[in-house]
Every structure is written in structure tokens, then in C-alpha cells.
Write a structure and sequence with these properties.
It contains six helices and seven strands. The protein is an alpha/beta fold and 255 residues long. Bound molecules: nicotinamide-adenine-dinucleotide (NAD).
Amino acid sequence: MRLKDKVAIITGGGRNIGEETAKLFAQEGAKVAVVDLDKERGGAVAKAIKAAKGQAEAFSADVSDPAQVDKLVKDITEKFGRVDILVNNVAITDNKKIFDITLDEWNKVLAVTLTSPFLMGRAAARQMVAQKSPGVIINVGSTSGFYGRSEAIAYTAAKGGVSNLTKSMAIQLAPYDIRVVMAVPNKIGSPVGQDIFDPNRPVVNLRKNRAGTPMHVAKVLLFLASDDADFVSGSAVFVDAGVTAVMPGDTGVGA
Ligand SMILES: NC(=O)c1ccc[n+]([C@@H]2O[C@H](COP(=O)([O-])OP(=O)(O)OC[C@H]3O[C@@H](n4cnc5c(N)ncnc54)[C@H](O)[C@@H]3O)[C@@H](O)[C@H]2O)c1
């Protein structure tokens, strides 16, 4: 077991990547706080983990709300005694163009996608520092943080921010033995904010015969959260089947 007795917080743990990660971490011995705004979704995942003899508890909170975040980390610490791992997985997207998005919509995407990893990271790190023990914070980024897109003006900006937030957090939390890393998925399971898995979702990557599944990301998050990644901090691991390796204009089709 690679996370035996570690306390792991997974935000957005009620669906898709977060759900699979919560289940995998629990299988690896972690006590998992399944955090989701949607109480039913998070509750169902915690229930499934318990049914499989794992340890989990569902917590319902809006991770973009500073007061809720502080209470959440306090509640989790009270329940499990400590915090060792945080996976900042929550994000929402806008799919809007620059002339179509309202300021409220922009602010909402930035709050949930960029500010929440800052708020959750800060609250979890405070607890890790108070415990005087090493910790790991993993931010889930996106290939959308590395490119401009014809839509999703706010999401692309927010995810670009998550990339640099990861680096500054890694530097500023290094004195406390807290590693901060980022995983960068592309087209995994259902699109962000949706329930439906479309097997015909266009796949643009170097593994054309394979669609990205939540487990592809969960396994990388497990590695990053474990002591196997002890020397990994401040960097990004791309879980994108090589799509970002392809030069714009190239077909991405090998010999
Ligand atoms: N799905 C993809 O193809 C894909 C690709 C690249 C990157 N990512 C990234 O992976 C992460 C997970 O994506 P996903 O598709 O699994 O997400 P999802 O939309 O399927 O699930 C997100 C969960 O977060 C919850 N949530 C939303 N806002 C919240 C809030 N304010 N507070 C608490 N919970 C909240 C939702 O209820 C939902 O259960 C995101 O950071 C996303 O940007 C996903």
C-alpha cells in the first residue's frame, strides 16, 4: 500500500477524475476526504469506498469560498486527525469567447479554477506546518493552461495561472518539506462540467487507439502523492498522450 494511513483531501471527488482518484487512494490505504459541492455525488463516492472496505468521508463545500475552505480543512482535521495530501482537482470551464463572457462568468471561473487551489493549498499547508510533518499538494492543471483556444477564455487563463501558482507554492512551501506538483491532463473521460462520457469524443494524441480515462490520471496522481515522487516538486507531469509534444501544423502522425 503506497499511501497507508495518509490523510488525503480530494476536491471535486464526486465525479470523473476526482472520483477515480479518491477510490484509488483509498485502495492504497489512504483515509480520503471526498470534497464536492454536490453532496449526493461526494456521498456516493465515500459510500462506495466504505463498501469496498476503504476509509472515506464526504464533505460538502464550495472550495472557492474562503470561509468554507477554512471550515472544511478544520472539519477534515477533526475527523482524521491530520492532513498529508491535498489534490486540488476542482475546476469549471466557460466555453466562452472574449466578446461573449460576462464579468461575473469570468470571475466565477477564476474563483473556482484558480483561486480555489490557492485557498485550499494555503489552508492545507497551514495544517501540515502545524503538524510539523511533510506534505504533498497536487494541482490538477490542463493542457488548456499551455495554449490559447478559440473558446474558454477564462478557463485557459485560469489554468495558465495554476501552472505558475504551482511553482511559487513549491518554492514558498519547500522550507516546510511540502512538495507541490501539477498533473496536466487532456481529454479525460467526460468533458469538464459534464456527466456524459462520449466514446466518440475526438482524440488528438499520439495514442490514437486509446481514449483518456480517469484512471490514467488517478495513477499519475497516486505516484505524485506517494514517497516514490520524493524528489519531484515544482514541476508538471503531462497526462496527455503526447498531444502537447506535437508542433502546431504537424499532423502528429508518426512514420
Ligand atoms: N475532463 C477532462 O477532459 C479534463 C481535461 C483536462 C484537465 N481536466 C482537469 O481535471 C480536473 C477534473 O476534471 P473533471 O472533468 O473530472 O471534472 P468534473 O466536472 O467531472 O468534476 C468536477 C467535480 O467538482 C465539483 N465542483 C465543481 N465546483 C465545485 C466547487 N466550487 N467546490 C467543490 N466542488 C466543486 C463538481 O460537483 C464535480 O463533481 C479539473 O481540474 C479539470 O480542469 C479535465
